[in-house]
Design a protein that fits this description.
- The complex is a heterodimer of chains A (363) and B (304).
- Chain A is mainly alpha-helical and 363 residues long.
- Helices cover 72% and strands 3% of the residues of chain A.
- Chain A has a domain of 227 residues.
- The relative contact order of chain A is 0.16.
- With 304 residues, chain B is mainly alpha-helical.
- In chain B, a hairpin with a 2-residue loop joins strand 1 and strand 2.
- In chain B, helix 1 crosses helix 9, helix 9 packs across helix 10 and helix 9 runs parallel beside helix 12.
- The chains are: A mainly alpha (363), B mainly alpha (304).
- At the A-B interface, helix 6, helix 7, helix 13, helix 15 and helix 17 of A face helix 4, helix 9 and helix 12 of B.
């Protein structure tokens, strides 16, 4: 057993495993069926959203209950320019504009909100962010000329003017020759998601990650070290907005559709639950969270048990908080600790001062 | 109706609606005082309580007639929610006593999801009527102003409850214990107060208060599992504006934002009914910029 664990913490083994994962991700859509491709892409879409939540919640310790706001706004920022301009003189440029806007605008909104909300200590962010979807939903329904209201906007069969002046119908995310639509969308989503995961990986391992960690564990110490808790909390929240917006763009690539429902508060709760279940303080945890989010949905719907899904989610989150506060991603570590304890060896693990630290710093 | 009559009616209806927000806001402040956390499940627990009240009432109405049956239902609901609040504190939140703040928030979110899911499973997700003493359409006329009975009863009930709570906190030994635990729980424990028990009482009282508000709401607009989602948001807004440590602040803020909101909806044309939800949150942002600790809150001094 311990040999196995030594292997998993070996740097080269990890790099190799990552390479294998990349190859699997690359080959999968060519051999799998459409449903599998769409499921894996959907997981990636949600994982990007959860990754943003992990940065603000898991790494910086601020609870955001309004993440669906950023995902929904990102989706609108992507779909509205594409609907307006795709196929016209801008051609594919409309998609690029949609992508840029879907990152910029939610990021900017996140920045503005955080500048105000982070002024209050403690739970202010949670209490303020709960308001975001609650305000945005009626607004989206009111301005239905822009947003399509409850029916939403679909660009699956979008009218556009061809070079000959005729009006055609087309899907901006249809594949070129040689690929099916689901395969093309899969590759697009997975590559963008990988970029965002890589950015997050380097962010939390560098200067910013350490600053986030110290802000999370003790703001007074952070201040005394010259790290402004205010500034870093605002930064984390802005990044969460950017990731939420990016996830909204990917949602459009995935389904070519959005409606005001994407903004709804219950999605925010589902993101939070998925984030904790996967492991909020971890990059890979976001992937587990995405898997949890999508699979709970699909399994419950598949078994005709959709009405139980709230109970299952609520129950799972409490059980995880009780038994595995680090989320699914900490399962190997928990097992390792259990094995070691059973052998009667050291129960205290080197490099894991988290338990004692978290008790001391909050009192 | 004359403009003055419309104005009075608007204000009275807003005060009634606002007193529901105030009740939930007060429940949140109570729990925050007792255990130092914000209970996002407060609305969900209140809804569960009101369903229990409806079920008990439904059982007794055929036996003892409608008025007594409804009353038994309400008493049953209050008793059940006292127990529910104490139970959630003892068996769920107590385990997170030493956890970090964000973990506690997520735990209450878990409780909320679980409770709303359970309510949906047991009673269904559709709105059902709540049998009550009067219907929501009854109104009385004072001069040429017509005011709904529901609004008056709701407002007066909540205000009376707040008076009772105030008496309990200021005039009884248990209230003294509750305040001691809220103020400094280690010292309270040293002077022989059962801190855990007091926390359970605090949670129970908060849950009971929420349940009465939920029953009053249900008597007007029926029962649905997500009845209190919107109200929770307003209550939190009131708590942020009024100050997390100030019961009076939370109540004043809840009433104030509702009145302002409904007046803005009625008299500022471009806001209207659709956009009135934005009003309280604009207020939040203004308050947070000017007074981050809330209008009535004390500035937290952190000892390092």
């Amino acid at each position: 057993m311990s040999g196995f664990f030594a292997l998993t913490s070996n740097r080269w083994f990890r790099l190799g495993a990552f390479g294998v994962l990349l190859v699997v991700l690359g080959v999968l859509p060519l051999v799998a069926n459409e449903f599998t491709n769409q499921t894996v892409s959907h997981i990636a879409v949600i994982a990007v959203a959860i990754l943003g939540l992990n940065i603000v919640m898991g790494y910086t310790g601020q609870v955001s209950l309004g993440h669906s706001f950023f995902v929904g706004i990102g989706a609108y920022c992507a779909i509205i320019p594409i609907q307006a301009w795709w196929g016209g003189p801008l051609a594919e440029g409309a998609i690029v504009i949609g992508f840029v806007l879907s990152i910029l605008i939610p990021g900017l909104l996140g920045l503005l909100i955080a500048l105000v909300a982070v002024r209050l200590r403690g739970l202010a962010l949670a209490m303020i962010t709960i308001a975001l979807p609650t305000i945005a939903l009626p607004l989206a329904q009111k301005f239905s000329d822009f947003t399509g209201g409850n029916e939403g906007i679909s660009i699956r069969r979008l009218d556009y003017v061809g070079a000959d002046g005729q009006i055609y119908k087309g899907n901006p995310f249809a594949a070129g020759p040689g690929l099916d639509n689901d395969q093309w969308q899969y590759y697009l989503i997975i590559s963008i998601a990988l970029v965002f995961f890589a950015l997050a990986y380097f962010l939390v391992r560098g200067k910013y990650g350490r600053a986030f960690a110290i802000v999370k564990s003790n703001e007074a110490i952070a201040s005394s070290m010259g790290i402004s808790p205010y500034r870093y909390k605002v930064l984390a929240f802005t990044i969460a907005g950017v990731y939420g917006g990016a996830s909204g763009f990917l949602l459009i690539v995935w389904g070519q559709y959005t409606s005001s429902e994407t903004l709804a508060f219950h999605h925010s709760i589902e993101y939070v639950i998925a984030s904790i279940v996967g492991g909020a303080g971890s990059i890979i945890g976001a992937v587990f969270g995405g898997v949890f989010y999508i699979l709970v949905d699909q399994v419950m719907n598949g078994l005709q048990l959709a009405k139980y899904s709230a109970v299952v989610q609520g129950g799972v989150i409490l059980v995880i908080l009780f038994l595995l506060p680090g989320g699914l991603v900490s399962l190997p570590r928990a097992i390792r600790r259990l094995v070691r304890r059973r052998r009667g060896g050291h129960t205290v693990e080197a490099g894991r001062p988290a338990d004692s630290a978290s008790v001391n710093t909050k009192q | 109706m004359n403009p003055f009559g419309t104005f009075v009616q608007l204000v009275v209806d807003a005060l009634a609606q606002g007193s529901l927000y105030a009740a939930l806001a007060l429940a949140i402040v109570l729990v925050n005082q007792a255990t130092g956390l914000v209970n996002f499940a407060q609305g969900g627990m209140a809804v569960l309580g009101s369903y229990i009240g409806m079920t008990i009432g439904g059982l007794f109405i055929p036996l003892v007639g409608s008025t007594a049956g409804i009353l038994i239902g309400i008493i049953g609901a209050v008793a059940a929610s006292l127990l529910l609040g104490a139970f959630v504190e003892r068996f769920v939140m107590r385990r997170f006593e030493r956890a970090e703040e964000d973990t506690k928030v997520v735990a209450t979110i878990g409780v909320l999801t679980l409770i709303v899911g359970l309510v949906g499973l047991i009673w269904g997700f559709n709105s059902i009527p709540y049998p009550f003493f009067f219907t929501s359409s009854e109104s009385i006329r004072i001069g040429d102003v017509s005011v709904s009975v529901w609004s008056i009863v709701t407002f007066l009930t909540i205000i009376a409850l707040m008076g009772v709570l105030q008496l309990l906190f200021r005039g009884t030994k248990m209230g003294l214990g509750l305040r001691a635990v809220a103020d400094n729980s280690p010292s309270a424990a040293l002077s022989g107060i059962r801190v855990g028990g007091m926390r359970m009482v605090g949670w129970g009282l908060a849950a009971a208060l929420g349940t009465i508000a939920a029953i009053l709401l249900a008597s007007k607009s029926g029962l649905a599992p997500n009845n209190f989602d919107g109200i929770l948001v307003y209550a939190l807004a009131a708590v942020v504006i009024g100050g997390l440590d100030s019961p009076i602040g939370a109540v004043v803020a809840a009433l104030g934002i509702t009145v302002l909101e409904s007046l803005a909806a009625a008299y500022i044309p471009w806001i209207g009914h659709d956009l009135k939800v934005v009003v309280p949150f604009v207020l939040i942002f203004v308050v947070l910029i000017v007074r981050p600790q809330g209008l009535f809150g004390r500035k937290a001094v952190v000892r390092v």
